[in-house]
Amino acid sequence: ERDFLKKVYNVVEAGGKVLIPVFALGRAQELCILVEEFWERMNLKVPVYFCHGLTEKATNYYKLFITWTNEKIKSTFVNRNMFDFKHISVFDRSYVNNPGPMVVFATPGMLHSGMSLNIFKAWCHDAKNMVIMPGYCVAGTMGHKLLNGSRKIETDKGSVTVNMAVEYLSFSAHADAKGILQLIKNCQPKNVVLVHGEERKMSFLIEKITDQFEIPSFKPANGEQISIPCQPQVSATMSKETFKAVRSAGNQFDGMLVRKNNQLVLLSKEEAVQQLGLKPHTLNLNYKLCLSGLNLEGSVIMERLHTQLSSIISDQKLGTFKRQHDGTLHLNSVHITCRTEGGRSVIHVSWNVEDEPIGKAVSEILEECGEDLITN
After folding, report:
1. Which residue has the higher pLDDT, 281 or 68?
2. Nearby residues of 302 by Cβ (< 8 Å), 6 or more positions away
3. Whole-angstrom Cα distance, residue 307 to residue 80?
């Protein structure tokens, strides 16, 4: 951690930019907290960003469910939520060519596509800049080539010369062979399936598992199907109402399996809430877009927005927005309004987590098109 922060600090102090390709869940938040604490301690003003999308969404969930985190972070919650970053904000692609130093956490972590690759191609020519690879990179990816010393990289738009510094600092969340063997010893499974690794190293690990535990082990290739003989015998009782719901649901039923009086009982969500004394929670998500360059009435904005969104959302087969008498738009729990705040029109979108596909689609359309969606 000290080495990581030292390298980042030295680059930005010299006026360079630092790209840190990360996976959206876990490692991005871990490194953001490291940088946030260091920036606070050193009183640095250099901008730090993480890319919007899955990283931003995952961070919001960490912020909401602080109990998911380790004891150190939970202990600081009394004073402030560690995920309410003061020095880190959401990255916009227009910032790529901004002058001066900056630090950007971008996905994906192996530099094989997406925003991290786009930023790399823009910054790799400058020797003042640095890319820090904080995790494993699969053979054939851009990250793997960089870590193996390549200084001329082929991209979809031709070859690029890499002048920026390349560093590897392992923050891997994966267990090593010793850790996996210890896990197998503790869990005593009847079968082991190895995924997400290099074929040679997986073969070596299977030999170890066979020698130590005499357990059937598999290492299927991507897309390969395997068949593991087993005899699952799970018996459960259920109410007549739940039985009817299971039959009508076919192969998929959303419920809860609980043990009562040494017997398994399948409960619907409604039965679980009632019988177990649970308190149901609804998670609501919000998005807003400021329309600083428009001088239109709110009703006109909502009318145009209704026309555009109805066409796009219907094409995606997500449903149809209905316009209410007050001008607001509704589709299931998705609720869209337009308000005036500080002399500017602001579009507000809210939805609950059950309608995440619709809410995500609407927010991404607004993020991508912005005011063009209304003026066109």
Report:
1. 281
2. 323, 327, 328, 329, 336, 337, 338
3. 43
